[in-house]
């Protein structure tokens, strides 16, 4: 299995004790129970009670990639790997994030986190999707969707596959914040006026993760990942995925 599994596991106990370079680094598979949709079911959909059908997840994932990265991929041009994480395991992840061996560090106490509120948004759990372009196996996109309603909570691309904005800024200020702000204005799920950029940013090689709080609740609501070499967006996270990404990188 490729590095995709670490999206789920980075906020686990192991990561909270050792740190995490990025959301997709490889860690032990059995840290959290993950249901893989096996190839033997590809002719007849695997269904979980109260969650989306497999074909719907594929379509929504493809649409999210095309929108975020200005692609025109078709279903027959993509290969999919789907995995499911249920609400109970997400609750375990959040509990370890909030109360684990490396719980919310002192400098993070200003970030409010209501685990119950976040879990209630994903009652059916999450689908994790790896989408690969068949014609180019090096072109890989990784996504996380709300298993019940299909809301896209995370999209990430290989660092060489950035998301172009309508106009490139001539001067980059504040470590990618300008680019992240413009991405939210153009393609974000929240209005930029409802968000406050968080002081902390996570630098990973040539990429930086810019985090945003909800003005009203002061909880983490969004993050945007920017390639500082190309000055373009290579991914975003929302709600529970932004929270897990933030604290796993603490």
The strand line-up of the biggest sheet is 1-2-3-4-5-9-8-7-6
Q: How much strand?
A: 25-35%
Stretches with pLDDT under 50, minimum 5 residues: 1-47, 168-173
Residues in helix, %:
25-40%
Largest sheet: 9 strands, antiparallel
Q: Span from first to last CA?
A: 26 Å
* Overall number of strands: 9
* Structural class by helix and strand composition: alpha+beta
Radius of gyration: 17 Å
| Mean pLDDT metric | 75
- Shape descriptor reads globular
Order of helices and strands: HHEHEHHEEEHEEEEH
What brief labels describe this structure?
alpha+beta, globular, single chain, 250 residues, disordered N terminus, 7 helices, 9-stranded antiparallel β-sheet
Topology:
Blueprint: H1 6-9, H2 13-18, E1 35-36, H3 54-69, E2 78-85, H4 87-99, H5 115-121, E3 126-133, E4 136-146, E5 152-157, H6 177-187, E6 195-204, E7 207-214, E8 220-227, E9 232-238, H7 240-248
Antiparallel strand pairs: 1-2, 2-3, 3-4, 4-5, 5-9, 6-7, 7-8, 8-9
What does this structure look like?
The protein has 250 residues and is an alpha+beta fold. It has helices at residues 6-9, 13-18, 54-69, 87-99, 115-121, 177-187, 240-248; strands spanning 35-36, 78-85, 126-133, 136-146, 152-157, 195-204, 207-214, 220-227, 232-238. Strands 1-2-3-4-5-9-8-7-6 form a nine-stranded antiparallel sheet. A hairpin with a 5-residue loop joins strand 4 (136-146) and strand 5. The longest helix has 16 residues, at 54-69.
Give a brief outline of the structure:
The chain has helices at 6-9, 13-18, 54-69, 87-99, 115-121, 177-187, 240-248; strands at 35-36, 78-85, 126-133, 136-146, 152-157, 195-204, 207-214, 220-227, 232-238. By secondary structure, it is α+β, with helices and mostly antiparallel strands. A nine-stranded antiparallel beta sheet has the order 1-2-3-4-5-9-8-7-6.
């Amino acid at each position: 299995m490729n590095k995709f599994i670490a999206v789920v596991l980075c906020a686990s106990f192991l990561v909270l004790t050792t740190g995490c370079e990025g959301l997709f680094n490889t860690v032990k598979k059995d840290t959290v129970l993950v249901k893989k949709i096996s190839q033997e079911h590809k002719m007849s959909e695997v269904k979980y009670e109260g969650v989306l059908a497999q074909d719907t997840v594929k379509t929504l994932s493809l649409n999210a990639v095309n929108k975020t990265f200005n692609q025109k991929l078709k279903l027959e041009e993509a290969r999919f790997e789907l995995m499911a994480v249920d609400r109970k395991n997400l609750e375990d992840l959040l509990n370890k994030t909030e109360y684990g061996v490396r719980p919310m560090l002192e400098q993070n106490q200003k970030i409010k986190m209501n685990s119950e509120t976040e879990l209630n948004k994903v009652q059916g759990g999450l689908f994790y999707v790896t989408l690969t372009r068949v014609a180019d196996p090096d072109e890989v996109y990784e996504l996380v969707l709300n298993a019940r309603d299909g809301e896209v909570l995370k999209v990430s691309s290989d660092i060489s596959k950035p998301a172009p904005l309508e106009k490139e800024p001539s001067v980059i200020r504040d470590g990618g914040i300008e680019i992240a702000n413009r991405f939210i204005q153009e393609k974000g799920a929240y209005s930029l006026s409802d968000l406050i950029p968080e002081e902390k940013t996570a630098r990973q090689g040539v990429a930086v993760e810019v985090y945003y709080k909800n003005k009203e609740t002061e909880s983490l609501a969004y993050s945007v990942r920017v390639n500082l070499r190309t000055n373009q967006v290579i991914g975003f996270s929302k709600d529970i995925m932004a929270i897990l990404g933030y604290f796993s990188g603490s």
